[in-house]
Design a protein that fits this description.
The complex is a heterodimer of chains A (305) and B (319). With 305 residues, chain A is mostly helical. In chain A, 77% of the residues lie in helices and 0% in strands. In chain B, a hairpin with a 5-residue loop joins β1 and β2. Chain B has 10 helices and 13 strands. Classes of the chains: A mainly alpha (305), B alpha/beta (319). The interface between A and B is medium-sized, with 22 and 30 residues.
Chain lengths: 305, 319
């Protein structure tokens, strides 16, 4: 178990280093930062001054090391746009994004797992195919469009839910559903295929030969073995939701990290872009590690020994 | 004495049109070992699974009589049969490596049988599990209870499966090729164990095997199956002394018999393969491989009673 986790942790550190490099490189690839910070009306001298003040005239490796060292010690730099420490900006917005991500994942799991189990138990029947086509629709529907449909239906026509902001809890419902929709197909298909495999296994035949109840056979014996890929992918999906909620936060006017990222990308506020990528990547790596640990709990064979 | 298990005219068909079991009848008496022997694909496992109602989805089962004690299995819904499975009738399988759930400990998987059928606490279940692990010859049963299947060898896992099958003191144990996947030395141990448990507990044992050596060691009664039918059924001694059906004789010629087979003497073999039998098949399914095949073998095949407990279906009556 300890060896397994150690291996995973080393891998996580390597991933983080890669992310640091990529996050840094991407912002540098997007053009001359000094020019875009200076704005369209700046003179050539202004640009030179900015380049010097921000240290953009120094060699790239030096800039990278400075940033990486500072970031590792918790200093993510200052936003040019907000003229405030980047970490403060992110910290302020993170709860909204995390909350949204968790609600989205909750909706997704609560839908995908029961439907996946049902489809597996009725493999090849009409019900199975109906569930399959629902996932196809879910996958094919762009989330901004679904978001707008929900806003029109439940926000404007029926007026059940607020159309923007999260001043009250029910503001999370629609964005949560939209976010969940994109995660459901993969989770559902994994649950279904995992359950089909588990249900046709020898140990399920043994469980049936023991006379166990259907619920015990399905939920205790089969689901536990089918759950591992679902856990792994759910962690990845949550990472996607946290990083990829940009569109949804924009549609529903939620001022979370996604919105901040979108804003800073369009304004070329590169310290914020770098920091957001880094923070989300850290969360992502943390989630994968968590999934590995949960899988080790689920499957004794992974614990080694 | 009434049989523990009584099957008359069992038929099982699969969705692809295969008739896997055709008119099988057999009885298992209390405390008796009844061996069902035949090649792969002859329907012996399907027969066993029919009794437990564990056939794969899509399989159709019908029987004139299928009775376990006073329970008419043909008329019971699966959730009622489930109450008998693991309780009064238990089954062990060919694949000990995959038949235990990898995610749960041995103790948990054993105890849940007793929890399900006797509604006892986990602690009581574990006590019983430890007792039975000892009984099937596993040392340090207390330690084994906390182990996972992947930590045990194949032989140990099969012992665990046997112990698990005995949790509720079943009257009928169905063993489907229980030793096929094991090393030869372990096979002998498991067979000895089954035999001694059967004698100690007065179990009725329905033993499915393709191995005539196993039959010779274990059986009181034998049903020889070929292409979904019981072609010969007899008392074990009578069968080995005077096999009537050409297929049974062919099978016996394939194995060396100590004291009878001379050193260097070539063993027999049965040419050809088992045909795939669809529904509505008429005639003897063995005729293409049989040295005595005659035109009559394409028609209805008579059932011959050679003695009160020796039956065969063959055109060569009294052969």
């Amino acid at each position: 178990m300890r060896k397994f986790l150690l291996r995973r942790a080393i891998l996580a550190v390597m991933v983080m280093l890669t992310v640091l490099v990529v996050a840094f490189a991407l912002t540098r690839l997007s053009g001359d930062l000094a020019v875009s910070i200076a704005g369209p009306n700046a003179t050539a001298e202004d640009v030179v001054t900015i380049r010097k003040n921000y240290g953009l005239d120094r060699p790239l490796p030096a800039q990278f090391v400075d940033w990486a060292v500072a970031a590792a010690s918790g200093d993510l730099g200052r936003s040019y746009l907000y003229r405030a420490p980047v970490w403060g900006l992110i910290k302020e917005r993170l709860p909204i994004t995390v909350c949204l991500g968790l609600i989205g994942l909750g909706f997704a799991l609560a839908t995908a797992i029961p439907l996946g189990i049902l489809a597996a138990m009725r493999e090849g029947t009409l019900l199975d195919r109906a569930i399959g086509s629902v996932t196809l629709i879910g996958q094919a529907m762009p989330s901004f469009w679904l978001g707008l449909l929900l806003i029109i239906t439940f926000g404007l026509k029926l007026q059940w839910l607020p159309i923007s902001g999260v001043d009250t809890w029910d503001g999370y419902v629609m964005p949560g559903i939209v976010l969940a929709f994109s995660a459901i197909p993969a989770l559902l298909r994994l649950t279904r295929s995992g359950m089909i495999e588990a249900l046709s296994s020898d140990y399920i035949r043994t469980a049936r030969a023991k006379g166990l109840s259907t619920s015990s056979i399905v939920l205790k014996h089969a689901l536990r073995n089918a759950a591992m890929p679902v856990v792994s992918v759910a962690a990845v999906q949550l990472g996607f939701m946290l990083g990829g909620s940009i569109v949804i936060e924009t549609v529903f006017a939620l001022h979370g990290v996604g919105y901040l990222a979108w804003e800073s990308i369009s304004k070329n506020d590169f310290p914020v872009v770098q920091a957001v990528v880094l923070v989300l990547a850290t969360i992502y790596v943390g989630l994968t590690l968590l999934a590995d640990m949960m899988n080790a709990v689920l499957d004794p064979r992974l614990r080694g020994g | 004495m009434r049989p523990v298990l009584e099957i008359t005219n069992l038929n099982v068909g699969f969705p692809d049109g295969t008739a896997a079991v055709r008119g099988v009848s057999l009885q298992v008496m209390p405390g008796e070992t009844h061996c069902v022997v035949g090649e792969s694909g002859c329907g012996k496992s399907v027969t066993a699974l029919s009794v437990m109602n564990l056939l794969p989805r899509g399989a159709r089962r019908s029987a004139d009589v299928m009775r376990f004690h006073d329970h008419d299995l043909t008329r019971m819904a699966d959730r009622h049969i489930a109450r008998l499975r693991g309780d009064k009738m238990a089954m062990i399988f060919q694949e000990p490596m995959t038949s235990l759930n990898p995610a749960y400990t041995i103790g948990s998987q054993m105890a849940e049988v007793l929890e399900r059928h006797r509604h006892v606490s986990r602690a009581k279940g574990l006590d019983r599990a430890a007792e039975l692990l000892g009984k099937v010859g596993i040392t340090a049963p207390g330690m084994r209870l906390g182990q996972y299947p992947h930590q045990l060898s194949g032989g140990l896992r099969q012992r665990v499966m046997i112990a698990m099958a005995l949790m509720c003191d079943p009257e009928l144990l169905i063993a489907d090729e229980p030793t096929t996947a094991l090393d030869v030395t372990v096979q002998a141990q498991i067979l000895r164990l089954l035999k001694s448990l059967q004698q100690q507990l007065g179990l009725a044992l329905l033993l499915i095997t393709h191995d005539l050596g196993v039959v010779a060691r274990m059986a009181q009664r034998v049903s020889v199956m070929y292409a979904g039918q019981v072609v010969e059924s007899a008392d074990a001694k009578a069968l080995f002394a005077a096999p009537a059906h050409p297929y049974t004789r062919g099978l016996l010629d394939c194995v060396p018999i100590p004291g009878k087979t001379a050193p260097g003497e070539p063993l027999g073999s049965i040419p050809g393969v088992v045909p795939r039998i669809g529904e509505g098949y008429v005639g003897c399914a063995f005729r293409d491989r049989c040295a005595y095949a005659a035109p009559a073998c394409k028609g209805e095949i008579p059932r011959n009673r050679l003695s009160p407990d020796h039956e065969t279906i063959c055109t060569r009556s009294g052969a």
